[in-house]
Prior knowledge:
This protein has helices at 49-56, 74-77, 98-103, and strands spanning 11-20, 23-33, 64-69, 72-73. Helices cover 17% and strands 27% of the residues. By secondary structure, it is an alpha+beta fold. A hairpin with a 2-residue loop joins β3 and β4. The chain has one domain (11-107): Rossmann fold. It is extended. The chain is built from three helices and four strands, in the order ββαββαα.
Amino acid sequence: MTSSAGTPIPLSVNDLTVAWYRKPVIWDVAFEVQPRQLVGIVGPNGAGKSTLLKAIMDLVPRASGRVEVFGRSYLQNRARVGYVPQRESVDWDFPISVLDVVTMGLYG
């Protein structure tokens, strides 16, 4: 798919459904992210935000639907996608201070 400017659409999701044990948890999701468009996914806990992102990136199996990144499948174009997963637990024993983290930006 291409945008009105003729460039490939950065993200296209069509009729995406994810099911756990044959029960749909998200279904018939469809949207496009146009070039230079900023998008947020919001909703309450358990609404399926993380599941949607994981399904887009083939980290959980899709029951149906198609996802394209710049006009190709995610697997063909995954080098163009960055993902930082949410981590619910914190390693409080990690040997670094807040000051160390803040000053890391000074090193390059």
